[in-house]
Amino acid sequence: MDNRLGIIFAVGAYSMWGLLPLYWKLFNNISAMELLAHRIIWSFVFVGIILLWKNKLAKIKAVIKDKKTFYLIIWAGILITLNWGLYIWGVTSGHIIEASMGYFIEPLFMVFLGLVVFKEKLNYWQIAAVISAMIGVLFLIVRYGEVPWFALSLATSFAIYGMLKKKIDTSSMISLGLETAIVVPVAILFLLFRQYQGIRVFGDSFSHNALLIGAGPATALPLLLFAEGARRIKMSTLGFVQYLSPTISLLLGVFVFKEIFTVSHFISFSFIWFGLLIYTFSLFYKPAQMKAKIKNLLVIFNERR
User: Fold this and answer.
1) Annotated domain spans of the chain
2) Alpha helix (H) residue ranges in the chain
3) pTM summary value
4) What is the rounded average pLDDT for all residues in the chain?
């Protein structure tokens, strides 16, 4: 039950992330750094209100006193800020397909971390799925024509963030609150500096300001779902659910924002989705069960002959 709940949380998180380009595209008149600052501040406010409402101050103090946990949270805060900034820049600069490529690469990093750090094991069906997905991603990188630093930075930052979230021994809400609290002073100083330069940090209309404030819930909700999912399921499983987000984003990039989708993308997707199909099948049927079913099918086939 806990594993299924974790998958539901993860699917919800990645679906919301996949749709986020629609939200960030509403801010084409704002720089990526300014939007990142708003995202940090309003995420902190949103999560802070929930923590106060649930009276979690005592637990927050306990987490801060735990040096090992707090050290991990500091690094998680830095990594997620870097990831947010990169993603906002990519979406607002017309690089949604490149961003989606980064998040197609990221599961391979997550599977690697799951094997090396958490000593997770894959059966031969899951290994075949990883190989298929890897071929698809490598084909896309080769056809890309150069080292995709933007995509690789997105993949690396979020994969390590996911690993840290699995190691942090506290609730996802408290962790996210502290992660944003660590970087919120820098975000406030940046907006104050922009205001000092004569650049308004809020728009002229109520709807525009409401959208800026809404960046908090839009950011925090999928992260909370992700954190709960990461604590309940294996890193390798979490890595494959990740494909949902870049798939949605890529479809938005092609059909909504009219970015180019080439034959190379189609070939790459074919390998990736084949790997997903194999891996998903392996989650519901263990190797022994699959062997038994294949054996039964062969018996039925021979009887009908």
Assistant:
1) 2-304
2) 2-24, 32-53, 57-65, 67-92, 96-116, 124-144, 149-167, 172-196, 206-232, 235-241, 244-251, 263-284, 287-304
3) 0.81
4) 84
